[in-house]
From TrEMBL:
Residues 1-87 are annotated as: Disordered. Residues 168-308 form the Cell envelope-related transcriptional attenuator domain. Pfam families: LytR_cpsA_psr (PF03816). This is LytR family transcriptional regulator. Residues 48-61 have a biased composition (Basic and acidic residues). The chain crosses the membrane at residues 95-117. Keywords: Membrane, Transmembrane, Transmembrane helix.
C-alpha cells in the first residue's frame, strides 16, 4: 500500500493508533482502547481472527432492513392457532324422553276407550228361567236394531226415519271365539222359533216384545248355545263408525238398486260411506234369496269394520282413534256384565279372519216365506260352537242352504 501523505489527519505509520487500526504488529493497545470481551465459557479469540456475528432468529428478521433485536431480550411468540369452527346447535334427545313418550301413547290408547266406555248405554240382558250351562269359549249375541236416536237431522232425512229407541231388529248374529277359532253365525230374522211366553213366532218378535233378555232366551232355546255377552248396534253405529274410518270396502256381486233401502251401487269392490254401507247391509229386495243374502252382506260390513279397526293407522292417528271410540260408544248398548276388558276382547274378536255362516235352514212347511233350522245340518254347527271345536265346512255356508 502506498504511503499516505503526512498531515492528512490519518495516524502515522509506526504509531499505536496506526497499528491498532491496520493490524500491525505492535504492542497492546492502550488501556482506554476498545477491547473484545470473550464469551463466557469460551477461549478468547485472537484480535486478527475473523469475527462471527450471532445468527438472528428467523422470526426476528425484518423485511425493512432493521437490525435484529437482542435475542436475549426477545420473547418467543407461539405459532398462530386455527380458529375453532362454530358448531351448530342440534337438539339432543335424552334417553328418558323415549320411555316417557311411549308411556304417554299407552296412556292415551287406554284412557280414551275407558272414558267412552263410561258413555255406553248398559242394558239388562240376563234372561230368566233355566239356561244352558257355561261353555268353553265366549259367545256374543250381536243385534242390529233400528235405534236411531243418535242420528243427526240430515241422516234421519236421508233414511226417512224418525228418532226411535230401537224396537225392531233385522240382524241377529252369534259371534263365537275360542280354541276352535272365530265363527260368525247369522240367524235370519224370519226364522220360526219358540219364543218364551209367546209360542212359535218369528225370532225377531222376541226382541220387539221383550227386548234383550227375551231375545237371548229365545236364541239359547233354539241353539243350546250359552250367550255370555250382548252387544246391540243401532243405525248410527254403522253410519258414524264407517265415517270415522273414512269409509269401508264392500264388494257387491251384482248391480244393486233398492229404492226401499235407498241403495244404488254398481257391481265390484268399492269404498262407500256410512249411509251406503247401512243401506247395503239392510237391502233385501234385490237378490233372489232376500233375507238370506242380506245376512251375508251384514257380516261383510261387520268384517270390513273389523279390518279397519285393526289397521295401524287407527292407533297412530289420534283424531281417527278418538272419532272411532266416540262413534262406537254413542250407538251401541252392552249388557251390564261387560267390563272394559270384555269390550276389548269383543273388539279384537271382530277383527281378523273368521268363519262366516248362516244357520243351516229350510223353508218352513207351514209358510214358504218363513224358515226353520235344518234338523239334519243345524245341530252339527250348534254342537261345534257349544264344544268350542272346529265347525264342519258342510254346516257353514253363506246362506245356510245345503251346497
Amino acid at each position: 500500500m502506498a504511503d499516505r501523505p503526512q498531515g492528512s489527519g490519518m495516524p502515522e505509520k509506526g504509531t499505536p493508533e496506526y497499528d491498532w487500526l491496520y493490524g500491525g504488529k505492535s504492542q497492546a493497545p492502550p488501556g482506554d482502547a476498545t477491547q473484545q470481551v470473550p464469551t463466557q465459557g469460551q477461549p478468547p479469540q485472537g484480535a486478527d481472527e475473523t469475527r462471527v456475528m450471532p445468527a438472528a432468529r428467523r422470526e426476528a428478521r425484518g423485511s425493512g432492513g432493521q437490525p435484529p433485536s437482542d435475542p436475549r431480550s426477545s420473547v418467543a411468540m407461539p405459532p398462530p392457532q386455527p380458529r375453532p369452527k362454530k358448531r351448530r346447535w342440534r337438539p339432543r334427545l335424552r334417553l328418558g324422553f323415549i320411555p316417557l313418550l311411549l308411556l304417554l301413547v299407552v296412556v292415551y290408547l287406554v284412557a280414551i276407550p275407558l272414558y267412552y266406555w263410561t258413555q255406553i248405554d248398559k242394558v239388562d240382558a240376563e234372561p230368566g228361567g233355566s239356561r244352558p250351562d257355561d261353555q268353553p269359549g265366549t259367545n256374543y249375541l250381536i243385534v242390529g236394531s233400528d235405534k236411531a236416536d243418535d242420528l243427526n237431522a240430515e241422516q234421519r232425512k236421508e233414511l226417512d226415519t224418525t228418532e226411535r229407541g230401537g224396537t225392531n231388529t233385522d240382524t241377529i248374529i252369534v259371534l263365537h271365539t275360542g280354541s276352535g277359532g272365530r265363527t260368525l253365525m247369522s240367524i235370519p230374522r224370519d226364522t220360526l222359533a219358540e219364543v218364551p211366553g209367546d209360542g212359535t213366532q218369528m225370532i225377531n218378535s222376541a226382541f220387539a216384545s221383550g227386548g234383550a233378555p227375551k231375545l237371548v232366551a229365545t236364541v239359547e232355546k233354539l241353539t243350546g248355545i250359552h250367550i255370555d255377552h250382548y252387544v246391540e248396534l243401532g243405525f248410527g253405529s254403522v253410519i258414524n263408525t264407517v265415517d270415522a274410518f273414512g269409509g269401508v270396502e264392500i264388494c257387491p256381486k251384482q248391480d244393486m238398486k233398492d229404492p226401499l233401502a235407498r241403495l244404488d251401487i254398481k257391481k265390484g269392490c268399492q269404498e262407500v260411506d256410512g249411509l251406503t254401507a247401512l243401506a247395503y247391509s239392510r237391502s233385501r229386495h234385490v237378490t233372489a234369496l232376500s233375507d238370506l243374502d242380506r245376512v251375508a252382506r251384514q257380516r261383510e260390513v261387520i268384517s270390513a269394520l273389523g279390518d279397519e279397526a285393526l289397521s295401524p293407522w287407527t292407533f297412530v292417528n289420534p283424531l281417527r282413534y278418538w272419532s272411532l271410540n266416540k262413534a262406537a260408544s254413542g250407538a251401541i248398548r252392552i249388557d251390564e256384565g261387560m267390563n272394559p276388558v270384555d269390550i276389548g276382547r269383543f273388539a279384537l274378536a271382530m277383527t281378523g279372519d273368521s268363519q262366516t255362516c248362516t244357520m243351516p235352514n229350510l223353508a218352513a212347511p207351514s209358510d214358504p216365506n218363513r224358515i226353520i233350522a235344518d234338523p239334519d245340518r243345524a245341530p252339527a254347527l250348534f254342537k261345534a260352537l257349544i264344544n268350542d271345536s272346529t265347525v264342519p265346512k258342510r254346516a257353514c255356508t253363506p246362506t245356510g242352504r245345503a251346497r
